[in-house]
Structures are given as C-alpha cells and as structure tokens.
Amino acid sequence: MFIFTKLAGPLTDPVSILMLLLMAGAGLCFTRFRRWGRGLVAFVALFWLAVASLPVGAWINAGLEERFPPPDLPERLDGILVLGGGVDQVVRAARGQMAVTAAAERMLVVPDLARRYPEARIVFTGGSGRLLHQDVKEVDAAAEVFAAIGLPPERILFEGESRNTRENALFTLEMMRPKPGENWLLVTSASHMPRSVGVFRAAGWPVIPYPVDYRTTGRERAPVFAPLHGLHDLSEALREWRGLIVYRLAGWTDSLYPAP
C-alpha cells in the first residue's frame, strides 16, 4: 500500500492530470478527432483560468483546517505526539545543514508546550515517507532542529521507522503503550488533522488534536490572477483528500471525514 500510494499520487495530482489532458488534446488536434482535441485544450484553459482567478484550493483547504478547532488544553498532559513532516532530511543529508519545510511549525510549538507541561512525555514520530532514500530518516534532522530551538534532548523520544501517518500511530502506540484515561496531545498541520485523528482513533488511541501550520485565513478572496499559486493550493488540498479516501478504503481511519 505504501508503494502504491507513492506511485499513484503523482498521477492523480491535478497538475499532472492537466498536463496529460493538454498533451492529449494537442495530439488529437492533428488527427481526425481534432474537434475532441480542441475541446480538451479549451477545457484545460478554462479550468486553469478558474483556478487562477478563484481561490478554489484555499477554499477546500480551509474546510480541512477548520474541521478541528484549537482545543482548550487540559490541566494535565501525559504526552505530546509530534508528527513528522517539518524537516527535509534528504536536503539536510545533501547539504550538511538543517533543512525545514513549510510545516516546521509542528516542531516550533513544542518548546512552549514542554514548558507548560514539564511532566509530559514528548515523542517525535517520523522515519522516511519517500519511496527512495529510506535510509535517511526524519528523526536525525528533527533532533538538530529541536536542539536549535532550545528543547533539551532528554525531554524527547524519537520513533524513526514509520513511513506514513498510519505507521506513526501504530509504531508510537506500541512504543509508548498509553494507559486508559491518559491525555495525549497530537500536534500536526491543521489540514492534516482530520486524517491523523481518524488514524489514531482507529488504532485505539483517543488523542487531543492540536492543529498548527495554518495556510488559510478562513476568509479567502479571489487572488490577482495567480495561476501557479492557485494550482499549488489545489494540489495540496486534493492530496489531503486523496489521503482521506485511500485511508478510509483501506480501513485505516474510523470514518471518511473524521470530526470532533
């Protein structure tokens, strides 16, 4: 399933689909099916115009981000789970210095939580979610980032074998063995929270969602013609929805669109 999702992902990306349709349309224009070809080219042009002129991707992403609002934190936390995705371990290995991604906020909020809950156990879970470079792990890059932002190394545990969100849940569950009634906080990107909560629930681990790394304001307006930005936002939003659908079909989440 891991290999299938990594291979199928690029083929179901809207940018890839648009390029394939454009190439097919252009090719048909030189055959007796030129009317179909012109229709495909026109469809791609109109679709791209709509995405460039309207914040379609941002609207979809805002719905994902608002599914789980920030919680009222309890007085006691037994643990804090931090999902990987905030570092680029391959770039770090190639360049020999820290490399963070747009999701670095997953890690940047941890020192403050650690100070608020000095007794809480902190776990970072993330191996390599790439089809290649399985030998280069996120945990090594994450350890450097945590040290740089002032989190004492003795405060954090690392799980470095998981390749996706489901394995994040299963491997940390086996590692930490939480007891009934314990309060565990789950830190990940707001748009990724519905799928993450669904996975942890299905594994039998009720967590408290703590969404970070917001990409939308919730009041998106039409941009001033931004074709590449619009396609990027749409790609990101649909990637998360692909994950929700695949995880549900595989039985890895408790519902298609988990809610509070």
Question: How much of the sequence is in beta strands?
Answer: 5-15%
Helix and strand content put the structural class at alpha/beta
Shape category = elongated
CATH architecture of the largest domain: 3-Layer(aba) Sandwich
How would you name the CATH homologous superfamily of the largest domain? HUPs
Give, in order, the helices and strands. HHHHEHHHEHEHEHEH
- Tally of contiguous helical segments: 11
For the record, the CATH class of the largest domain is: Alpha Beta
Name the average pLDDT.
91
How many domains? The number is 2
How much helical structure, as a percent, in the residues? 40-55%
Structure description:
The chain is α/β, with parallel strands linked by helices. The chain folds into two domains: 89 residues, no CATH class; 134 residues, Rossmann fold (3-Layer(aba) Sandwich), CATH 3.40.50.620. The chain contains eleven helices and five strands, in the order ααααβαααβαβαβαβα. Strands 3-2-1-4-5 form a five-stranded parallel sheet, sandwiched between helices. α10 links the parallel β4 and β5. The longest helix has 23 residues. It is elongated. The model has no long low-confidence stretch (mean pLDDT 91).
Provide the fold topology.
Elements: H1 2-11, H2 14-28, H3 34-53, H4 56-65, E1 79-83, H5 89-95, H6 105-108, H7 110-116, E2 121-125, H8 138-148, E3 156-159, H9 165-176, E4 184-189, H10 193-202, E5 208-212, H11 227-249
Parallel strand pairs: 1-2, 1-4, 2-3, 4-5
Helix pairs in contact: 2-3, 3-11, 4-11, 9-10
